[in-house]
Design goal:
60 residues, globular, three-stranded antiparallel beta sheet, Ribo_uL30_ferredoxin-like_sf, Ribosomal Protein L30, Chain: A, alpha+beta
Amino acid sequence: MADKKIKVTLVKSTIGCVPKHRKMIEGIGLRKLHHSVELPDNDATRGIIRQVGYLLKVEE
């Protein structure tokens, strides 16, 4: 598998969301609205995106 990356942007606030989801957002390195990070495209990253996808915008 090549070095594939996924660009993830926080587009919705974590205020009022499930505390576990807030920890996941912190864990992948997102801090503020419209902040973006590049993450490796693997099963762990896909699992996080599946759970908190309602807060994110994902670009491949």
